[in-house]
Amino acid sequence: MRNTIVSMFAVAAALSLSTVAHAQQKTLTVYTYESFISEWGPGPKVKEAFEKTCACNVKFVGVADGVALLTRLKLEGQDTDADLALGLDTNLVSEAKATGLFEAHGLHLAAVKVPGSYSDDTFVPYDYGHFAVVYDTTAMKSPPKSLKELVEGDPSQKIAIEDPRTSTPGLGLLLWVRSVYGDKAPEAWAKLKNRILTVAPGWSEAYGLFTKGEVPMVFSYTTSPAYHMVEEKTERYQAASFSEGHYIQIEVAGILKGASDKELAKEFLKFMVSPAFQDVIPTTNWMMPAAETSSPLPEAFDKLVQPQKTFLMGSDEVAKNRQTWIDEWLNAMSMN
Amino acid sequence: MLLTRAERRRGIAWGLTSLACIAFFVGIAVIALLSWDVADAQSRLFTAYTWRILRFTLWQAMLSTLLSVGFALPVALALARRPDFPGRIWIIRLMALPMGIPVLIGALGLIGIWGRQGLINGLLLRLGLDQPVSIYGFSGILLAHVFFNLPLATRLLLAALERQPAEYWLLSASLGMKPLSVFRFVEWPAVRNVIPGISALVFMLCATSFTLVLVLGGGPAATTLEVAIYQSLRFDFDPPRAVALALLQIGITGIILVAMALLPAPDDHGAASGRASRRFDGRTLSAGLWDSCAVLAATAFLIMPLASILAAGLKADLWSLTTSAAFLAAARTSLSIALSAGLLTVLTSLAVIAGREAVADMKKPGITARSFAAMLAGMSSLVLLVPPIVLGTGWFLVLRPLGDVDRFAAALVAIINMLMALPFVMRVLEPALDTHRRRTARLSASLGVSGLSRLRHIDLPVLTKPLLTALSFAMALSLGDLGVVALFGSNDLITLPWLVYNRLSSYRTNDADGLALILCLICLLLTILGTTGRKGANNG
Fold this sequence. Notes:
- The complex is a heterodimer.
- By secondary structure, chain A is α/β, with parallel strands linked by helices.
- Chain A has helices at residues 2-17, 34-37, 43-54, 66-76, 93-98, 147-152, 168-181, 185-192, 203-211, 224-231, 262-272, 275-278, 281-285, 299-302, 315-334; strands at 27-33, 57-63, 84-89, 102-103, 123-136, 159-162, 196-200, 217-221, 237-240, 246-256, 288-289, 310-311.
- Residues 264-270 and 534-540 of chain B have low confidence and may be disordered.
- Chain B has helices spanning 5-34, 48-81, 88-94, 97-100, 103-114, 119-126, 138-162, 166-174, 179-207, 211-217, 225-234, 239-261, 285-314, 318-323, 325-361, 367-382, 388-399, 406-447, 451-480, 485-488, 496-504, 509-531.
- By secondary structure, chain B is mainly alpha-helical.
- Chains A and B meet through helix 1, helix 2, strand 2, helix 4 and strand 7 of A and helix 1, helix 5, helix 10, helix 11 and helix 15 of B.
């Protein structure tokens, strides 16, 4: 009996932790990733701005990241509470469509401007970032100027990368190497392997190693230095510009078929590519805006690497080959 | 036959209930996942890749266990021989800390000491070595596993040594036994009983290691099955495959553990008056030196990474962190989950122990009774091998149709934490309860003291301390667990480790360091609670 009582206590504790007092008006439920809605993320400002225009309530539900977001939707299926999913990236688009949970938005959104002019009938971009090798200027005087230089450079100058089996940036690097080297990618990995200090499970772990000074290079985004310049007033961390071009990550949002109020969801997508939303993105999500902002970006963003060429593979191609390429990567990286 | 019939029946009922509850909880999750319809299922489960990581998983777990328990033995012997070692209680408290720190924070602490830019390499560099010693690779994994498991093994070994009746030490001193004889006749019999159990625990912890292996392993050659399970639930979203891998993990590890459990572990419980232990041996200078070296080396090994966490944490603005609404909410959530999980674990352990006790008390337990007792033992330890992500995902599927999962999330996390802590708590409570019963059962039975009055006058005065230790153990474990909650997320359920990861994933490394420090301090506080008055633990 005591067991039952205690588990009831646990359930009661769970209940008391959830607060469920909301005004009786339309609610737009947006599933997203956690860092989007944290106190320093774009979420609070976006919510405030949109609620001013819509006489509605925006409810964010945050999961760990874009991959977890898709998993959550798959688990919930048709009867998901989500009206909108915000935070998938282009690599996940084809898998997301295959769930049959999403619906075409039917909007003409001329405002969207992303490199490679990505557009889709279901998903709308709200920000983007180019992947890049970020280095510590105090530990490295001459960073690699190309992916080739990274692969063939001094093996004592190490880099921390992310695992493509468990993280999105890891997959990004895999696709970047693939885009540049094609079928020769395994050979490139076998060479790059000597420069890799470790393969972290996710971006946070790799970046943690980097900011602790353990490794002079980390696989991250061109926008990472902006955070350090704006928030920490330091130019110590810089992104290396690669001559071949950079692989891009575009973050997108889409409407669920089961959305309770589709007009409201569409309003949100329109709002998302308007300056009111876009103004918030650069200094809270630390990504590049996907449409016009009302004022120029902070000065720090002018100093960022501007890739000359953008790589982006179609998400069908990624979905089809991901496992093969990961297997190749595993083999190349496990060889001695 | 020291229990009354009613007591025995009650014991069996408790054991059965706990067994049924746990089997139900795990079973439902597995069934839910297995019934998931995968459109493009990857049939290739047993590929060369699976075998390779299986081999690696077992190999590193075996070596890690050997090293952790091997190094823990001299430390525990030294600590047991020196009840007056300066700062002893603090060294023991320190040993509870690694369990309560989120794994990533521990790894960063280790890197601060052993990493390329760490203290040790700095020293070596000054001594003229130009190539830094790298911990990335197999050695790093072993180092980290020893850091996390040596303290655990030491504490459990020490507890076993301290349960030896005071008469043994008295007798060995009056017989003038040499240290080697004391080891052979008194110390070894005490630790021999617990070493298989402790090794099994450490083995399971290392076999299911995830973040440590990836961060310090240096590359995908170092991958455990847990990584593959995680990948198949997250990226591939192939629940049946995840379940199959999890079953493989449980099956193979289970076989190894059963083999280990078959090693003879003779019963050795002497009658004792329960007087306070005093040690009379080890008075020589060389014994003193040896003990001091063992304890100091272990303490230094433990304290250095913790000090690097402290140093990093102090750089953060601790005041504004601790007063922020986000922190207060997360602390409240974490503590209520930890308390629920801790209480649940202690109660479940007591139920399992009651069941085993009832069977042990039978004059001639039949095959059913004996396999029931074995199942209780097996279940309460093997449950550590069930990946929390499998349980979490499975229950999400089950609970989803019943409404908002947010409402169940806290209870779910508490129960999953309970399952994780159960094997630990069992190892703290079972020997303590066992010894206590052996010392008091006859007397209570002959005096006719039973039920509540036995609980009040005989059990509680002695068992309060082990119960508190067990509770603090379980709570620390639950506090440091990032939890399945990270995968599903819920606005109302942000725990402290989740907050740490959150800050890390938003570039706020400083805040994360500060929060990690606070988390360590909370764990320390819990441990102090669990070890107060430990010195008098034998004063029955």
